[in-house]
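Collaborator request log, item 7. Partner lab (contact: R.S.) asked for a structural prediction of 26S proteasome non-ATPase regulatory subunit 5 to inform their binding assays.
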Amino acid sequence: MDEQSQLLEAATDFAHYPGSHSDHSATQFLNRFPLPLIINALQTQFDVPGLESTLVQCLQRLFKTKLGASLIPQYMPFVQVGLQADSQAVRSLACKTVTCLLKNLDNSHTVAAHLIKEFNIYSLLLDCLINGNEDVAAAAINAIKKLASFPEGMDIVFPSTKGGDTDLGIIASQCSSLGRVRVLALVVKLFSVSTSAASAIYSLNLLKLLEAEIRSADDTLVTLSVFELLYELAEVEHGAEFLSKSSLFQLLSSIISDDSSDSILRSRAMMISGRILSKEITYSSIDEPCAKIVISSIDGRLQSLEDPSNRDEFETALESLGQIGLFIRGAKLLLSGTSPAARHVIDAAFDRQGPERHGRQLAALHALGNISGETRSESDIILDAEAEDNLLRLLYETASRSSKLTPSGLFLSVLQQDSEIRIAGYRMISGLVSRPWCLMEICSRQEIINIVTDPSTETTKIGMEARYNCCKRIHKSLTQSSGVSADPAFAVIAAKLQEAVGMGPYLHRKRVEAQPIVMTADRF
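Returned to partner:
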């Protein structure tokens, strides 16, 4: 009992030490309590209050040291037993120990792969993933992800022969809905490891598992979880390349167009579509009609979403069009045809019908900023002739239907609203002002110039920077436009813009001299 209390006290101190442990402190601890003694206590004295959790935390920190990690190969039977333990805390420890092993073998991947195979660690990790609690499942995914980060580990995770105990497709088909979601989460995490891992997943048709789960639509919560995984997949640098090769676009389009689907499912489908079509690499893997199908489905959905109760879905649709418009080819598609999908963005950007439409207008202004090229390189801002003609036509038609009559009136009305709307308005003008017609509209309104050149207009850092960037864009467009800059009428505007650019983005106050203050003396 005395030794047990000493171990508990020392393990508590080691586990809760505020800094990182060195190999020296790890050696001192192990000299007092050898690793076999700690493991034995963990296996046989689990009923002692607080002992198991303390030893688990202690071993986690011990194995993170270089000395501790070097001892793991000698105690692989303990890791093997730990992965099958009834205690979730011990299973989590075993999974994390595998990760420590893989991280600290000094790039000796062959040794690591040999140990994983010899002790059947990978299949036990998969069991932890499916049957463990949330912490155990997360630890198992991290260990498997680390295993797949080197070629020898890849051979274990993606064996050349199908149909074994570790075939992820078979495992997903045999477990519960929670287990399937966890297997799909593993697929997504492995997909992000490397292009080689992503290629292996694609060739093994594991992406089809996600599509099949969405098509089944038996459980809305499960479907939403899979959508979240798809969104995560679309965020991966090489994700769009492989996703665009699948039948995912057709599936997403059908969900967006399906009036019987839950609104939240349609919204997630639109967000994922926008994310994938915002990547340049996507367009090298799909043909244009495929992208147009997705845009058409979002366009059709926006036409049927005038009901105020559909506000969130409407805003999501606008945001997804904005994502598509980030890349020049996506922007061209949004502004092509006789009835471009971008008309919804432009209509909503200048619609001020009540506070309930604030979010809609904000989303539309940011989307218009993306489509017009605010985030693109200078060479990619201007689109092809058809797209530019449609952009010009839509803005003037919108202005003619309003009380403002001209685009400059619309721009001014945006800059006279609250801070959030103004920031989005700065982004929109920054993208549009590269067009000569827009530059003329802005320079024709002194009020717009006054707002973008006044450093006291904005009080937040993001607002100041957005205003300043807008001011720089207008000034640059003005100086590069020979037809406008040569006009003496614009000389005053150019000088004012030049002065504002030179002042910088942040609030600039003129120098104030110190002044004496005369006050009545305080008396007791």
